[in-house]
Design a protein that fits this description.
This protein has eleven helices and eight strands. By secondary structure, the chain is an alpha/beta fold. It has a single domain, classed as Thiamin diphosphate (ThDP)-binding fold, Pyr/PP domains (Rossmann fold, 3-Layer(aba) Sandwich). Strands 2-1-3-4-6-5-8-7 form an eight-stranded mixed sheet, sandwiched between helices. Helix 1 packs across helix 7. It binds thiamine diphosphate and iron/sulfur cluster. Iron/sulfur cluster (SF4) binds next to loops. Iron/sulfur cluster binds next to loops.
Length: about 270
């Protein structure tokens, strides 16, 4: 199997957490392939930002989206060809700022795709402005006196929106992250994986995460328990917070697609369900 690294020059800053995500994604895709998934059936979409550069470096097919529109693109891909495994790479600015509505609605309608959120707590590519996940007090280009807003809790937000698989990994724990990504991509429904991703240039959180992350012992008993763990003040828990089976959007709408001609609709109904 090819090594999944493209020939493009890599311009991420040395030490950036994106390297760990890249390694985990490659490991996970390798496993999927060994289990029988053809590489041609795995496609990616991305937003714009440092996270989005993974599109240049990862040697699989896809569509390089617009900033904030990575999930809009992904949903179009999935509806056009439901047999594909669609993986979306989003930044915290991209997916919870400009693209917030796409994220919430993709979760609500349980689109069968995977969103990998590169949470570096800032807008990295544009040099460190505060994002929706920047900590209170974060000092960056747009908040020189400290961010006065409290961040969203991404796990809690996506639980509330209806994501059927919700998990958190850390870019420095590559094997653990690869395992979570594997379960997320195999999950039928909207899977959301927040990845804690230090940005060495504008938000270097390695020490914080090394000291304050802990693995979940088991799947939380219910959503309330999951939410409480996601919001824990002492620890940033890593692992799967929620995993449920629910009808997925493309199957629910299949019988009601009037624009499709009869043979295409028949194929849609028989092949992809
Ligand atoms: C609609 C739109 N608004 C703003 C920009 C400029 N822009 C490009 S990347 C970026 C920030 C990306 O931040 P984030 O999504 O958090 O990704 P990161 O670079 O941190 O990985 C911005 C504001 C744009 N390209 N399009
Ligand atoms: S600016 Fe931050 S997120 Fe972007 S490549 Fe550098 S370290 Fe990584």
């Amino acid at each position: 199997m090819r090594n999944l690294i493209s020939s493009k020059e890599n311009t991420w800053c040395i030490g950036c957490g994106n390297f760990g995500i890249f390694a985990a994604v490659r490991k996970c895709i390798k496993t999927l392939h060994e289990e029988g998934t053809p590489l041609a059936d795995i496609v990616m979409t991305s937003g714009i930002g440092c996270h989005g550069k993974i599109f240049d470096y990862l040697d699989i097919s896809g569509i390089y989206g617009l900033h904030g529109r990575a999930l809009a693109t992904a949903q179009g891909v999935k509806l056009a060809n439901p047999k594909l495994n669609v993986i979306t790479f989003g930044g915290d600015g991209d997916s919870l700022g400009e693209g917030l509505e796409h994220t919430l609605f993709a979760a609500k309608r349980n689109m069968d795709i995977t969103l990998i959120l590169h949470n570096n707590g800032n807008y990295g590519l544009t040099t460190g402005q505060a994002s929706p996940l920047s900590d209170f007090g974060y000092k960056g280009l747009s908040t020189p006196f400290g961010n006065v807003e409290k961040p969203f809790n991404a796990i809690s937000l996506l639980l509330e929106a209806g994501a059927s698989f919700v998990a958190r990994g850390y870019s420095a724990k590559i094997d653990h992250l690869a395992g979570i990504l594997h379960q997320a991509i195999r999950h039928k429904g909207f899977s959301f994986v927040e990845v804690l991703q230090p940005c060495v240039s504008y938000n270097n959180t390695y020490q914080l995460y090394n000291e304050h992350t802990a693995f979940l012992d088991a799947l939380p008993s219910d959503i309330e328990h999951a939410r409480a763990l996601a919001k824990d003040h002492e620890k940033q828990y890593l692992g799967i917070f929620h995993n449920e089976t629910r009808a997925v959007y493309h199957e629910l709408i299949a019988p009601a697609i009037p624009a499709m001609d009869v043979s295409a609709r028949k194929r849609y109904l028989t092949e992809y369900q």
